[in-house]
Specification:
By secondary structure, the protein is an alpha/beta fold. The protein contains seven helices and 14 strands. It folds into three domains: about 90 residues, no CATH class; about 60 residues, no CATH class; about 50 residues, no CATH class.
């Protein structure tokens, strides 16, 4: 089962969903507006963490309930009249029609994935845009390590099970971290050394390998004289390919960038 007649939502659709708008984290839901992290529901508006329920407005943390407004139950007729009255008022004040505003977030912007995909350079920029900012966003423990990075064996074959009881220290940020059993099993299977970076620094390192979330207009760099292509490509029989396109690889990067046609001709 898929998703039908839905838009502007993220992380939803498992089990089939329909009429979903401006939501996050929905499963098996129908007619859901401006709702966060709620599963197996129908006819919910502005709710958070509600499950197996129907006809809720402005509710939080409810399970197996129906005809509730602000977590209070009503008779169906009462619910319908009060819901329409509240929505009409919210439309007049301009509060209806969008997902929860950032002012209600329990997190600072720099603690969320927003700072990864659409970063603000400074705290002041985020505040001006209406977001919260956490001045002490770094979490974790420090100076609790029982094993120094230089004493950890270089190869995974030398690692003993005793490392599971050790506290390690990140060479990047000095945050403490540990190795768990399933992780150690994976490293041994894949012949991967014990990481010297904590999970957060490893995550940031992976993110740094991504191209930026920006597009540049480029020309295909396929040139038979320069790149010694192995076969002739459909869009040009000689010389330089005429195709132009948008790409996340900026012109100052070292990679050779082909159009889709030339790329597929080389790799297929």
């Amino acid at each position: 089962m898929g998703v039908k007649d839905s838009m502007d939502s993220y992380h939803y659709g498992l089990g089939g969903s329909e009429l979903i708008y401006e939501t996050h984290a929905m499963v098996h839901s129908y007619n859901i507006l401006f709702v966060h992290l709620s599963y197996d529901n129908s006819h919910l508006i502005y709710c958070d963490s509600c499950h197996n329920s129907e006809n809720l407005l402005g509710c939080v943390g409810m399970k197996k309930n129906k005809y509730c407004i602000f977590n209070k139950a009503y008779q169906p007729d009462e619910y319908k009249k009060l819901k329409e009255k509240i929505i009409a008022y919210a439309k007049e004040t301009g509060e209806y029609g969008e997902f929860f505003p950032p002012q209600l977030s329990p997190f600072g912007y720099n603690e969320t994935q927003g700072q990864v995909y659409m970063p603000f350079k400074t705290r002041e920029e985020a505040i001006r845009a209406g977001y919260k900012w956490e001045d002490e966003a770094t979490t974790g423990t420090f100076n609790k390590e029982t094993l120094k990075p230089e004493t950890i064996p270089e190869t995974i074959d030398e690692i003993q099970d005793s490392i599971l009881s050790e506290v390690l220290v990140c060479v990047g940020c000095n945050r403490n971290y540990r190795i768990v059993n399933n992780e150690l099993t994976f490293y041994r299977r894949e012949k991967i050394p014990i990481p010297r970076l904590c999970p957060e620094c490893r995550y940031q390192k992976r993110l740094s390998l991504r191209p930026p979330r920006q597009l540049w207009h480029r020309k295909c760099m396929c040139d038979y004289k320069v790149h010694q292509n192995t076969i002739k490509h459909p869009d040009h029989s000689e010389g330089v390919c005429p195709n132009e396109f948008e790409t996340s690889y900026s012109p100052d990067r070292p990679e050779v960038v082909y159009c889709e046609t030339c790329y597929n001709a080389e790799v297929v």
